[in-house]
Amino acid sequence: MNKKFLKRDLEYILSLFLSILVSLLIGAFIMIANGRSPLLGYGALLKGAFGSKYNIATTLAKTVPLVLTGLATAISFSSGIYNIGGEGQLYLGAFAAAYVGITFTALPKGIGILLAIVAGAVVGGLYAYLPAILKVKYKIDEVITTIMLNSVAVLFTSYLVNYPFATTKGKMGGTEIIAEGYHLKRLIKLSTLNTSIFFMGFIAIIIYYLMEKTSAGYDYKMVGQNSLFARYGGINDKKQMIMAMVISGALSGMAGVFEVLGVHYRFLQNISPGYAWDGMLAALIVKNNPIGVIVMSIFLGALKTGSVSMENATSIPSELVLVIQSIIILFIAGEAGFKEKFKELNLKRKSKQKVGEKNA
Amino acid sequence: MAEKLIELRNISKRFPGVLANDNVSLDIEKGEIHAIIGENGAGKSTLMNIIYGLYEPTQGEILFKGKPTQIKSPLDAIGLGIGMVHQHFMLVPSFTVAENIVLGNEPKHKKLFIDYKKAVAITEELSETYGLKVDPHEKVESLSVGIQQRIEILKVLYKGADVLILDEPTAVLTPQETEELFEVIRKLVNDLGKTVIIITHKLQEVLAISDRVSVMRQGKMIGTLQTKDANEQILAEMMVGREVLFDELYKKESSKKEVLSVKGIKARDNRGLVALNGVSFNLKAGEILGIAGVEGNGQSELVEVLTGLREMEEGEFIVNGVEAFNKSPNEIRKLGIAHVPEDRLATGLSKDASIWENLLMGIQHEEPYAIKGVHINKKKVKERTDRLIDEFDIRTPSGDLPVGKLSGGNMQKVVIAREFSFNTPILIIAQPTRGVDVGAIEFIHSQIIEKRNKGAAILLVSAELDEIFRLSDRIITIYEGKITGEFLNGEITKQEIGLYMTGKHTEKAEGGEKVE
Amino acid sequence: MLKQVFNLTLLQHTIRTATPLILAALGGLLTEHAGMLNIGMEGMILLGAFFGVLGSFFFGSSLAGVILAGLVGLVIGLLFAVFVVDLKSDEFIVAIAINMFASGLTVFLLRSIFGVKGAFSSPDIVPLPRLKFPGLSSVPFLNAILNNHSIFVYISWILVVLIYIYLYKTPHGIWLRASGEYPEALETAGVSPKKMKYISSIACGVLCGFAGAHLSLGYLTLFSENMSANRGFIAVAAIIFGRANPIRTFAAALMFGFFDALGIRLQVMGIPSQFTQMIPYIATILALFIVTKRQIAKVKKNKERDSSAE
User: Fold this and answer.
1) How do residues B467-514 score in pLDDT, each as one tens digit?
2) Nearest C-alpha of chain C: how many angstroms from A245?
3) What's the confidence (pLDDT) of residue C1?
4) Contact between chains at A226 and B350 (C-beta distance less than 8 A)
5) B378: distance to nearest CA of chain C, Å?
6) Architecture (CATH level 2) of domain C2-129+138-304
7) What residues of chain C lie within 8 A of the CB of B90, using their CB?
8) E strand segments, B190-257
9) What share of chain A is helix, strand, coil (3-state, %, to 5)?
10) Which domain CATH number covers B466?
């Protein structure tokens, strides 16, 4: 209610920083073990992420799909329905955009782009609707179904672009290039940063407003925390879960759309190197806080961009950042547990001290 | 004097934020039935879990047969011959009775494989020796709580327990089953030389079964008495720490317009078994209708059906002249019914959400708290939150605190503040003071009476007969999903109503007028 | 053309491709019985594959590769248990971290140790031995299908039986199941459910490590990026499909292996293989759907029976 952070939020932010710090330290040790200087390595990484206009642009370009899939995770997880199917929804959304882009070539520029975005969102949303219904109506675990559906979507789009929609120019597992009118404008020379970042900003503001400021956001949150309480209080919990899942799917779908319209100009069978997983990571780290998702996405985007420069400058393989990321996640997953253990230890120590005092 | 079997010396147990046991000392003598009583949260279960090795004490020592002993795990306790029957039965539902009884110490053949035949034989033998009938081959999930309790006791005896700790063993039993259990306990102690520690909060039972009784309050041991020197009044005072004389409640008479009626309601419980079998009654404005019954006779399902949380199979449900058959919780709330649920943490609150969020539930889409039903108006919400915190005496530093950090009594006040603030003509209130300290009980009772005096119709479900008698104008009894009697308060004694609650009224023929 | 697809080689390939699924699924069903769904098997298999190659390459022995793969699996299984059991972390988040860690670390090491990108193969990697049963060679059909497989094929079959006996016939196995279904009951019976969960998780890690070693040392001798290729998830599917019963899970893994082998053959012939590859995933969703439908029908039946009895 008041603007200042609550104590537990502050505590969490503190342990978050600690986790990231320790993970980076572990990364440094790995560099040393490889006979490389961590100072040079991280220096190159930082420079690669933010060193120039081009680098910043590249970092931001990487941020776009992370923010969208991160928000997709945040809204579904905080509503108590776990959409792990972001990757599959992203693929289908991306394909839908490409389909629109190669089919309706004569549409005026703005309308075409809008149509492609809507198509991607609808397809992504529908693909999330299926596991949502299975969950709500038949109590089938959505974590499992969405994981399974990821593979189905990736395989299905792979079929589409290798057979019925395969480009005639070379064998590459991709569609034809979408019509000129669908290309989002590039903002900085050489970088893939494009106007999708404005769309993303707009969508992020809407989702933030929805989750944090509205009655509907309240409903989602309550369903996520205690669905029986929500139902008891008059909220249609099943409907809210389905809605949250569909919005989540739509966001992931749009993440795919922007990869097609802004970056590749076609659908490729490996269009995402796991963006939805990284986005989910961003959301998990900040416990589904929408603003946190944006901050974390920039952080992860910077790691990814910077790691390439790090590799070029110091020949430390860029995959090191994956290792660092996964360690951060582990720490965050264990955060509450670590804290509890720490408190227990403290308690034991204190009581031992007391006994000591008595004996003395 | 009898031999001291277990001695607890200055035991303290601290959990993060709570001192559950504060310097507690207790002696258990060989061959006695020792009752431990106290209100919810007094620290009884914690203390017993320490004896059983589930918790390690933060401070203090345990003597077993006069020797200092460390009980670090249940295995140590079992080794000393201590067994515990938990309030929530520790039986694996998909396992058979025999498998459950030998769990942890299975008979083997060829040193490697479980000897199931022998497990069955052991079960049959135990069953025979102690007179506790069970079928070794049946799966536990399909058995009644009474039988499950027998299995628990057999399990403990199989492990060679000489000391049995029973944690609230009668909470889920019918009076008849309770009597049977007491027979078993007496047999174990008198004929077989066992020692029994029984935790309870029911004073009559303490007086009926125990040799000695120890009273706990707020984590402290208040004292131990010979049961023959105790009576209900003395024990109650020790439990709550002062004389318990509730103020007489002022009841104002007003118009008695019927606002809610149900006829022939049928519904099933979560397992698909018939829970309500043709329930009919009506509720009038300005009255409190108490529903008395042993827990598990359909009260919970009745409340859920009336608030839209459970499906009705057939019947008529009319609220203020409107048919409300199987309407959603939201629609029923709109008809003017507020609901204080029996389990506040499961149903009535979100413990991770703040107090203001919990108080907002139900009106989050309404003006002025939501501008145009969309944007939450934090200022108005805060005003209301602060007003309710003040009005309902919720002890908290701020409305931003997560509800889970409050005490049981204050949590319950949050639920009551929210539901009462809607000013609905009808209130359905279940177990309003369960797990709540005495001060809060008085406050909550006065709030309920105030609502009644203002003309609200109140349906009160409580497992505490005292509460029913104190608050109700009219009382109906429920047994196995059927209404067995209806009385005006004052017409009937607690003893008599017990017969209706257990379905035994028909055996004794007449007595109270039977309705429907 | 059908004859080209459906022949003995297909069955041979089925057995081969099913083996890592069987090994991983056996491990995963142990954690499933202990109350933990382990999606981190994907990463554990990948790590097993890499360290199998590493061990075999440096020590010049396939046994060293297998031991190293098993050890790495053990460590990761232990890690999973520490976080999930002791720190009470979300098993699912920990699993994702493990998967990410595996894909990052294997590529990182591939490049920093072997200095290659994509894949590493070398004649110095010693493959796992193949077993030949002379008695079988005279039986025409069985010889072709069953004989001359890599050693883990046979080990996995033996393990199916052993794990079945363990789970249902030994006290220890019963404790393991109790630790998942109702840990408090086990704890009060004097057996630590934590210990059982640790054991299951470590066993799962080791078996996934072996699954990985079979992938990289069994028939091919190479490691390539993302070599596990969703096998961990298919193993999860097999567990769910087989309702965590070792025999049924084995059957499910064989079935999924069959479709995998079929897909590969179709692909070689230029026929889209994507649909056969989808089968494990779709089958799992359908299986879940059918199981719950059946349960709902059962409850309804009970209701009707009750009603008629009244």
Assistant:
1) 888 899 999 999 889 999 999 988 888 778 878 887 777 755 444 444
2) 18
3) 59
4) yes
5) 33
6) Orthogonal Bundle (1.10)
7) 182, 184-185, 188-189
8) 195-200, 212-217, 220-226
9) 75, 0, 20
10) 3.40.50.300
